[in-house]
User: Which sequence fits this backbone?
């Protein structure tokens, strides 16, 4: 296993092809710097790692963080509708996002005045968040690099917020077998007794494991709805994708 410092050094050597986009987020819009093309970037990273004789690092460095996934669009819309700028409840609201990637929902929440911690384990996420936080004046957003599978270890920067979050959120983070159970446990620990957990997901095979952990083992009640959002591929015949919005409360 290669440590975080080596990974950061490796990723800093890569020159990534970026693009500026405007994204609707509920009733507002965000300006975002993203990867131009996810598949091309994966190929580029794989080539670079092969040249460095470290192709086995592709799993750790796969740049899934760098584009907006449809589930993030759905979650950003949920957050946008739930938070009213300037209202005392919003200004005091503590939010933690796990596996944030470009952190569209966190940017929306921070811009409305919520106190937000966005977290992800990829060493390149911080660089993108710095740019996008500034562009969107989302000053109350703090970033913490963290892999939720390392619980009970918690970075010191997250300790003061842990167990005190009113709302813990994540979008499209259940793509591997080892992710859902520790994610559900982390979200259950991070939220207050009266708090809310929201996950948006395109219907990945491991979704049920996540729901079972929260409802059967952590004592949460679940409600679900489906939202239709823009599909990422412009050439996709349907142009839209249905996303599950799962809400959990104790
Ligand atoms: C498919 S992307 C989704 C990104 C963003 N949430 C969205 O919907 O646009 C999955 C994200 O989860 C992050 N991730 C995956 N496993 C993680 C873990 N164990 N701890 C922290 N972040 C993780 C990845 O780095 C990536 O940013």
Assistant:
């Amino acid at each position: 296993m290669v440590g975080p410092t080596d990974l950061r050094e490796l990723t800093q050597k890569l020159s990534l092809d970026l693009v500026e986009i405007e994204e609707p987020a509920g009733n507002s819009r965000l300006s975002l710097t993203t990867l131009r093309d996810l598949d091309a970037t994966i190929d580029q990273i794989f080539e670079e790692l092969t040249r460095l004789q470290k192709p086995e690092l592709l799993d750790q460095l796969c740049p899934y963080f760098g584009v907006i996934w449809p589930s993030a669009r759905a979650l950003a819309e949920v957050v946008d509708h739930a938070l009213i700028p300037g209202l005392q409840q919003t200004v005091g609201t503590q939010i933690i996002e796990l596996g944030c990637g470009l952190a569209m929902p966190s940017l929306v929440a921070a811009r409305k005045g919520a106190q937000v911690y966005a977290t992800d384990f990829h060493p390149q996420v911080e660089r993108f968040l710095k740019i996008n936080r500034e562009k969107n004046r989302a000053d109350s957003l703090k970033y913490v690099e963290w892999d939720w599978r390392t619980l009970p270890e918690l970075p010191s920067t997250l300790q003061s917020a842990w167990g005190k979050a009113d709302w813990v959120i994540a979008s499209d983070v259940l793509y591997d077998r080892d992710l859902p159970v520790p994610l559900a446990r982390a979200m259950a620990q991070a939220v207050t007794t009266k708090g809310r957990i929201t996950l948006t997901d395109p219907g990945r095979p491991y979704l049920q494991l996540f729901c079972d952990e929260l409802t059967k083992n952590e004592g949460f009640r679940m409600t679900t709805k489906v939202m239709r959002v823009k599909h990422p591929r412009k050439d996709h015949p349907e142009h839209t994708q249905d996303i599950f919005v799962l809400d959990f409360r104790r």
About this structure: Residues 38-51 form the longest helix (14 residues). Residues 64-65, 68-69, 71-72, 99-102, 120-122, 147-149, 171-173, 179 surround S-adenosylmethionine (CB under 6 Å). The chain has a mean pLDDT of 92.
